[in-house]
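Inputs:
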Amino acid sequence: MDSKTIIAKRVARELRQDYLVNLGIGLPTLVARYLPRDVEVFFQSENGIIGMAPLPEAGMEDEFLTDAGGDHIGAIPGACSFDSCLSFGIIRGGHLDVTVLGGLEVDEQGRLANWIIPGKMVPGMGGAMDLVAGAKKVIVAMTHMAKSGPKIVTECKLPVTAQRRVDLVVTDLAVIQPTREGLLLLELAPGVTPTQVISATAARLLVPANVPEMAISD
Amino acid sequence: LRMLTPGIVISPAQAVEKIPAGASLLIGGFLGVGTPHRLIDELVRQERRDLIVIANDTARPNHGIGKLIDKRLVAKVIVSHIGTNPETQRQVMRGELIAELCPQGTLAERIRAGGHGLGGVLTPTGVGTMAAEGKQTIEIDGQSFLLERPIRADFALIAAHRADYSGNLAYFLTSRNFNPIMAMAGKTVIAEPAEIVPVGVIAPDEVVTPHVLVDYIVAREGRHG
């Protein structure tokens, strides 16, 4: 199983019946593929729809029905569309159950940085700051390491997306829960040891005596 | 009677002739979906320069607002992201284009505030981040909010699914996005509908942008034979 699949499968297990869910662009989008069979959720895309679905088949594209990445999507019966104010009112107003976002850095305080690398890459925050500020639960889905080194650090060097402590960090090596006391190692990816996680992390980790393996079979 | 007002339906060329160089433009759309593409093509053809563009994004090179960026017609953008347009990023890094990055929900609310006559909005988004620089933080019931200022512009360029001849507008799926919000906040509002229908065809409950907000409708392309 490759890194992205491990992360997407594990995040998918966080979704519960009837949740309203917003998946960020890129890796988080994969989560929709691994939704447990007995769980139905609603996907919001912040460009103005609840009830988005994968494009049913090639040739069914509608130029006016796209997701926040600009890709063509489908819609489930009962889907609804709305303007950007309402869309972000849903996000900011506490009506969104879960947002899953990619990350560049997460620090010991559980703060996320994911929108800018000053002087190098200036993509902008898009909806990320609103999503982190407003969603009931914020899950960061990212590879544990970047090419340049660990992404989980003592303190974010990159500008943060919000001061809020995110709720869960899911990587290809581990599941980490930021708490008031620090970063708690909750689960390990199959075949990964706590020592491996610690060496791939540039922040202090709280490591319990027994850390269970991520449940991501099939 | 408004529905008989002559001159509300104009060509893209006539619409852009009303827009001077240096004008501020609210432009609808999300990555080019729900963007008034014919008006943008005409801005390029007439080479309107030094524009200030307020929009969600700058789409991609050679697409939507990206066309204005390609031709270097824009002096400043106020947008939520430019990650999909490497040319915008290049111009910003070289200091050739000013980009004010604004969280997407905040951008929508600032435009709404402008169009609704409010002095600003208080949002929790961006508190304690770079987005808070230079802004007032206000505490209400123990929670911190940023004071974000309203946005208005000289023109709002709107894409709609349908217009009637009085200017009532209706939208389609995710091409709605910022359009109805911006239609409130432009001093002059120019709408580019995919189709124009007789007054009365759009039922009152289906009208999203009331005709009183719309100054001009861009005519469909002429069809001959």
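The mean pLDDT of chain A is 95. Flag for discussion at group meeting.
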